[in-house]
Structure formats: C-alpha cells, structure tokens
C-alpha cells in the first residue's frame, strides 16, 4: 500500500446465531458514524473490518426503512470519501482513490415539502441529494439539479422527522413531493429536533435574520397571558419595547413607523390593539414569521428599520382541527380543515377582548356613590382571520385571505341628565379604528426551475374620533336652553396592490428572485367636521381637506450565489417610484451581504442595505393611538432614507447552540418630527408646516447565546446602542439623543420542559430607561390673564433618562388530555418601573414648591387561561 502510516485493523466478528441477515431499518440524527455502522452490521449479521480511526470524526444522519445493506451503506458514506466491499459474510471499508471524473448531464428535480396530514407548506426545509442542497420557499417549493443516473433525496426540517425518497433513476426532469411528520424517535430514544435559526445564522448570507413559529410565540410569557409575536421580538437584542406592557417595536434606534408589518406579504398600517397593549396578529392564525433587522432582501422596501412578514395557516387538507381559548381579558376560537379533501382547505381564527364587559360592574359600583353623576367606559377589540386554499394540481394552487381588526373606545359622563329641573351636562368621547385586508393569490410552477406567485389585494386603514359636549337648563322636563358641540375627525388609507414574485434556480449554486408590484394609494390624513348648536342656531363646518392619491411602483431582483463551499453571496437591487400631486420621487436601494466560513462551526458575515420610505406617521405620544396619522411625503419633502452596514461573527459547536455577535451602523436622512412647541401654532396651520426635517444615526452591538431545543432551551442576549437625532428646527440645531436610546439592554429567556404535563417559561428584561424632556426652569406667570399656571422652559430635548427598567415574567403550562392550562405572572417580583415623570407641587413651609414625581403604572399582574383542543 502507498499509505506510509501503519493502520491497526479493528476486526469484529458478530455472532449471528440468532440473528438472520435482512434489510436495514433505523433512524439517526448527527450520530457517530462508528455507532451507526455497528448497528447496520448488527442488523445485517455480517462481519466487518476497517482501518482504526477512519470513522472517529465522522457523524451521520440517516432515516432508513427496510432498505438493503448496499443502499444503507451507499447513503451512509455518500460524499465522505469512504468506500466498501462486500465479500461473502464480510464488509471491508477503505478510503476512495480519487480518479478523473467524467462530466454527467444534470436534470432538475422539484416539488413541495409539506406537513403530513395537514398539507401545510414547510418553509425553509433542507433538501439534499448527490452532494447538493436546496431550501424550500414560502410555499414549500424546492428545485435541485442532480446528475443523471441513480439518485435519492433526503429532507430535514426543525422539529420534524427526516424523510428520504426511494432511489430513482433520473434521466429526465422529475417531480418529488415530501410529507413530513412532527417529531419522532431515533437511536437511543433521541428526539428529532432542529433549529432553523441555527441554519440562518451559520448558512445564510444575511445578518440579523430570525424565524419564529407558533410554538416559540406561545411560550413567551406576556401581560394578561395573551401570546404576542411583537412582544416575543421585544426580547431580541437591538429591539426595544418603548413603553412598558405595550406591543411597540423600536429597532436599532429607529422610530415606531419605520417597521414594515406584513400579513401574507400585504402591508398593514395599524398593528396594535388597545393603544398597543396587544398586537393585531392572532397567534392561532400564524404559521411562521420572518423578521429582518439588519440585512434586508431586495424584495422588501418602504421602511427604514425592519421588516416582519407573518405567514398565516393554510388549513389542513385531511382533517378538521380547532381550539377554543378562554382567558381573563379575551377569548379566541380557531378551526381549520378540508372543504374538498385533498384539494381545498379553510382556516378561520377569531379573537375578542371583553374589557368592555369587565368595566360594567366597576362603573356601576362607582356610579352608585353619586345620584347626580353617571360614568360609563367601554373598550374592546376584535380580530378575524380567514383563509381558503385550493390545489388545482401539483403545479398550481390559489388562495383567498381575509383579515379584519377593529378597536373601539367610548367614555360617557353625564350630570343630572335624568332630572326634570335644573342644570345638566353630558360628555361623550368615541373612538373607532382598525384594518381590513382582502387578498387573492395564485402560485404556479412555471417550470422545474421557475416558480411564480401572483397577488392582488385591497387594504384599508381607518380611524374616527367623535367628541360631543352638551350642557343646558331644564324646566318641567323640557330643555329651555342648551349649547351643543360635536367634533368628529376621520383618517383613512386605501391601497390597491398588484404584484408578481418569481423564484428561478438556473444552477444548484445560484438562485435568483425577482418581481414587481404596483400600489394605488389613497390618503385622507384628517378631516374634521364640527357642529355647534343652541336653542337659536345650528351650524356645521367641514374641513376642505384634499384626499391625496399616489401611485407607487417597485421592481426588484436579487441573487443568492455559493461559488465555494465556505463562501456565500447575496446581492440585489430595489428600484421604486412614488408619484403624488404631479411630483415623482425615485429610490434606488442596493443590497449586498456575504457569509464566509473560515473553519468548521464558524461563520463571518457582512452586509450593506439602503432603504427608502415614502410614508410616515405623525406620532404625538408614546403609545399607539388613532390620532397618530399616516401621511405621504408632500410638496418639497424628500423621502426618508437609511444606509446601514452590518457585520457578525457566529459560532455553533452543535446544531442546538449558537453564539453570535453582530454590529451595525445606520445613517438616516430626511427624518420628520414635530417641531419644538408645534402645539402653540394656530390650529388651521397645515400639518407639514408643523414638522421639522433632520437626520439621525444609530450604532451598536448585539450579543446573543441561544439554545433552540431540548428540555432546557432559550437565549441570553445583550445589546449596546447609541441613537441620536439632529434637526435645524429642534433643540437649537444641536444633536440630541433619541427617545428610545436604550444604551444597555439585557434579555434572558428560559423554556423548561419539566415533564410531559408541565412546561415552565421565564423571561427577564433589564434596560436603560427611555429618554424624556424635562423643563429645567419654572416660574409663576405674572397674572396678566384670568388664569394662572406655572410657566416652564426646557433647554434641551430628551435631557433626562428614566431609571433603569427591569422585570421578570413567569408562565406555567399544564397539559391535559383535551387541551392545556396557562398560568402566568407579569412583573413577577412587582418592580414598579417608572414610565414617565409629571410636574407637580409640594406644600412646604407655607409655600407651594414645584417638584417632579415619577409615574409608575404596572404592578404584578396574574392571569390564567384554558385552551380546549379538538
């Protein structure tokens, strides 16, 4: 032999007295090759011999069911450089002698990977064969090129049992579909699991990408026990929550309106319920969620900070499933199943809160203490998600999706309204706001290498505020004099969207995504209608506000190329046009990111993204309210833009454990905020004259250690952030920190599967407080007017940082035969965090002295819910 190293031969003779040679059946996930090989030999009843140390560093994953010995060994040693010979009852392993390879013609194998039973598409499943690999898209479609001849495919997906195709002879393009079962057992009773996020960290070229499924969202402890995708993302490094308890999201120093929220690829404008206490995304309707915070695919544009695409459930094609959840503050019902078995499915999810019902006894008790005064308060939200899917064939399918979400709030106060004599007073405030989305889509496999998706959608956002104030005098039950005023304000957006998206696989190592879409916008920023009446007059005035119509066109293209095994490049370009009131704005957004693997288990990434935003929100408070209006750029305003560079280092010694460090630097231009003291300007001043235009920067580092599965899983993260703004018309033109410049942020999330009946989830958050503006001077006015109040002067914007914020949330889940109980504690150790500061007075030594007092809101909040599964 040419090998100069002395190899000690390890010879083992298996006693086959009671074991007969036969076919091989086993499952193994990332197991030592020596262990798996010995099991194959045990089942075959053969003796074996191989050089010592040959299998020491090799691990394999197999899923074999009643296959021959030769097929089992072929699959085990594929692309390993190890070959075998079978002579009689002996198997010998040896290293491959490399020879000059002859070029083989290649054919394309394509198909869909779906969940067994339900038929739900599995997004991001890994399909491997002949040393090549492909990943399924959002519809579960894959395409891979293989050499002619004998081939087989293996598919893996986190949380599902690996599946393999039968060996097939490939001499023309072929379709192979897969159905995967959740979980399963392997050698030594290990559970089959996996981590898509580990794959995104180690294999994808993008920086700052996260995928969430329904299970991860449901296991995050939150206020009132209402699982929420946005509150799950708040636990990620680089993502701030804003105000405590709210479903806000401020990503890498950006503003709340700089995040794009999509439902099945359709943008939503209002994504919060109850002022931000809950998000508009019902967990029961979610299949999975893609979140991008650093490197953005060329497909997305229109926001500066992040993109979140929520994919809803399609519904099972085989069986009916559903659940009903009853909680302290809300309830939910969902059901899905086949309409035409194997062809058409449906999915419906409903959710409603009952804060309005809970306030009835409280208001009744309060009103019982006063015979003259009557107060009523109501607040509720409703969500409806519905979807119908139909498969025309293996190549063609279509769907219709509907979403409706609405909030309402009313406050009624009256004094002596029911009396027949004397003075009376009546006050009513009523708010209603929400979204509606209707979309239809068609997916078609145009060729084994080309997949297309065509979508048409209509979206509507609306808000309406009504304020009524009436007072007067009564005599003998009749009104003798009165004054009445009513003010109503409307804000709505209507969008028509038409888009086509394509995925092309010209080569195994190169995939291309491209597409275009058109949006017809209709903006009504605000329209006021005022009515004034008395016993002698009645007058109604309506603002002459123009509805702004805009046309937006976007086209994009991107490629994902792997020229070498340790190098992957993603590149793209997004071009947009926005036409409004005779002006056309253009945006060119290049994107590039790459991944380099210098060694096994290591990845280094870098990326650059530019984004353009044509629509912004006028935000007046820290919580989400319908008074925060969406406005397009007008007149001489320029679109907001951001340039962002990001880099990261990742280490994953095993598939469930990942260490990552990501850094970023972002430059933002043409930002819009209200100018200083805009509220003292006359009310008839146009809104754009109240705005200031400026710039901002954000930079920071995100650290994260995550363990994705096992009895104990979770993550620990730390983020360091600097975010600032600079406006010529604010803060005397000087730079100032952003409101949510949370310098330090720590998150700990732990999920513990105690046993088959109990789960425990713990999360802890600690971060630097938000920034607010406090007056540095205060004095009493000279009393020239009939009213008296303290006058203040704030010399700098966001000049005070609130105290360090921290809290712990706990959640316990108890599984029963037909469902599960959830018990949770929000703010478990009852740390009353400061959410704001108010100016007040203390009476000391006979004088009123101005002071600042901290506002603390949320104590420990327990909740319980039960979910019945059928």
Plain-language structure description:
The protein is mainly beta and 870 residues long. The protein is built from 6 helices and 57 strands. The strands form 13 sheets. It has a 22-stranded antiparallel barrel. Strands 17-24-25-20-21 form a 5-stranded mixed beta sheet. Helix 1 (33-44) packs antiparallel against helix 2 (69-76).
Task: Write a short abstract of this structure.
With 870 residues, the protein is mostly beta strands. Helices cover 6% and strands 58% of the residues.
List the main descriptive attributes of the protein structure presented here.
mainly beta, single chain, disordered N terminus, 22-stranded antiparallel barrel
For the CA atoms, what is the radius of gyration? 32 Å
Taking pLDDT < 50 over at least 5 consecutive residues as the criterion, the unreliable ranges are 1-21, 99-103, 184-194, 784-788
Mean pLDDT: 85
The end-to-end distance, rounded to whole angstroms, is 66 Å
Number of helices: 6
Please tally the β strands and state the result: 57
> What would the principal axes of the Cα set say about the shape?
elongated
Content-based structural category: mainly beta
Sheet bearing the most strands, described? 22 strands, antiparallel, barrel
Strand content: over 45%
| Helix percentage range | under 10%
């Amino acid at each position: 032999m040419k090998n100069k190293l002395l190899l000690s031969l390890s010879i083992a003779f298996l006693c086959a007295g009671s074991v007969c040679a036969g076919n091989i059946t086993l499952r193994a996930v990332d197991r030592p090759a020596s262990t798996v090989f010995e099991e194959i030999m045990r089942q075959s009843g053969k003796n074996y011999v191989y050089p010592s140390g040959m299998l020491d560093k090799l691990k394999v994953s197999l899923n074999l069911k009643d296959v021959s010995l030769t097929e089992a060994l072929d699959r085990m040693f594929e692309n390993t450089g190890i070959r075998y010979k079978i002579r009689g009852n002996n198997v010998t392993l040896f290293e491959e002698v490399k020879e000059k390879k002859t070029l083989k013609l290649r054919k394309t194998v394509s198909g869909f990977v779906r969940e067994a039973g339900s038929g739900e598409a599995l997004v991001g499943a890994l399909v491997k064969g002949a040393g090549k690999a492909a990943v399924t898209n959002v519809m579960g479609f894959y395409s891979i090129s293989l050499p002619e001849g004998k081939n087989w495919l293996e598919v893996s997906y986190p949380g599902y049992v690996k599946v393999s195709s039968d060996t097939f002879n490939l001499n023309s393009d072929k379709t192979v579909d897969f159905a995967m079962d959740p979980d399963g057992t392997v050698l030594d009773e290990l559970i089959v699991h996996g981590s898509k996020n580990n794959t995104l960290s180690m294999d994808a070229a993008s920086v700052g990408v996260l995928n969430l499924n329904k299970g991860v969202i449901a296991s995050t402890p939150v206020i009132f026990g209402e699982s929420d995708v946005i509150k799950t993302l708040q636990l990620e490094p680089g993502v701030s929550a804003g105000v405590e308890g709210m479903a806000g999201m401020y990503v890498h120093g950006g503003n709340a309106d700089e995040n794009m929220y999509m439902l099945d690829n359709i943008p939503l404008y209002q994504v919060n319920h109850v002022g931000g206490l809950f998000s508009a995304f019902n967990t029961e309707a979610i299949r999975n969620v893609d979140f991008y915070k650093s490197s953005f695919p060329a497909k997305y544009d229109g926001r500066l900070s992040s993109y979140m695409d929520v994919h809803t459930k399609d519904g099972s094609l085989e069986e009916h499933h559903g659940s009903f959840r009853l909680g302290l503050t809300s309830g939910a019902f969902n059901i899905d199943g086949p309409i035409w078995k194997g062809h058409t499915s449906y999915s419906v999810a409903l959710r409603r809160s009952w804060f309005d019902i809970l306030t009835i006894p409280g208001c009744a008790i309060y009103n019982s203490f006063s015979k003259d005064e009557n107060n009523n308060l109501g607040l509720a939200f409703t969500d409806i998600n519905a979807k119908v899917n139909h498969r025309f064939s293996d190549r063609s399918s279509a769907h219709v999706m509907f979403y409706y979400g609405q909030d309402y709030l009313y406050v009624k106060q009256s004094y002596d309204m029911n009396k027949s004599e004397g003075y009376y007073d009546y006050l009513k405030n009523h708010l209603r706001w929400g979204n509606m989305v209707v979309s239809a889509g068609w997916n078609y496999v145009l060729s084994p290498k080309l997949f297309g998706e065509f979508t048409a959608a209509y979206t509507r956002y609306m808000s309406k505020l009504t304020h009524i104030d009436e007072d007067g005098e009564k005599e003998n039950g009749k009104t003798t004099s009165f004054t009445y005023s009513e003010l109503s304000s409307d804000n709505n957006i209507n969008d028509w969207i038409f888009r086509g998206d394509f995925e092309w696989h010209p080569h195994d190592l190169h995939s291309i995504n491209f597409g275009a879409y058109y949006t017809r916008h209709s903006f009504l920023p605000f329209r006021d209608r005022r009515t004034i009446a008395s016993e002698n007059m009645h007058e109604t005035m309506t603002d002459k506000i123009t509805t702004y119509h805009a046309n937006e066109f976007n086209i994009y293209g991107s490629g994902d190329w792997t020229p070498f095994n340790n190098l992957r490049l993603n590149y793209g370009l997004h071009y947009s046009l926005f036409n409004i009131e005779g002006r056309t704005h253009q945006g060119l957004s290049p994107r590039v990111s790459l991944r380099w693997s210098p060694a096994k288990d290591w990845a280094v990434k870098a990326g650059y993204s530019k984004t353009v935003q044509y629509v912004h929100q006028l935000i007046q408070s820290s919580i989400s309210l319908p008074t925060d209006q969406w406005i397009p750029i007008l007149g001489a305003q320029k679109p907001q833009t951001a340039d962002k560079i990001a880099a990261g280092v990742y280490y994953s010694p095993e598939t469930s454990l990942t260490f990552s460090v990501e850094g970023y630097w972002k430059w933002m231009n043409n930002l819009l905020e209200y100018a200083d003291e805009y509220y003292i300007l006359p009310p008839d001043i146009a809104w754009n004259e109240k705005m200031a235009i400026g710039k901002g920067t954000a930079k920071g580092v995100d650290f994260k250690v995550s363990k994705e599965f096992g009895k104990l899983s979770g993550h620990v993260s730390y983020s360091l952030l600097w975010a600032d703004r600079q406006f010529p018309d604010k803060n005397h033109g000087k730079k100032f920190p952003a409101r949510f410049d949370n310098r330090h942020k720590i998150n700990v999330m732990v999920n513990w599967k105690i046993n088959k009946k109990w789960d425990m989830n713990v999360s802890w958050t600690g971060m630097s407080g938000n920034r607010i503006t406090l007056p540095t001077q205060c004095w009493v006015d000279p009393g020239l007017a009939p009213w008296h109040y303290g006058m203040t002067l704030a010399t700098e914007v966001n000049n005070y940082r609130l105290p360090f914020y921290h809290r712990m949330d706990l959640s316990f889940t108890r599984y029963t035969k037909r469902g599960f109980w959830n018990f949770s504690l929000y703010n478990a150790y009852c740390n009353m965090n400061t959410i704001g500061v108010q100016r007040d007075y203390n009476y000391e030594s006979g004088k009123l002295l101005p002071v600042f007092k901290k506002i603390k809101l949320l104590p420990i909040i327990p909740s319980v819910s039960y979910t019945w599964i059928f």
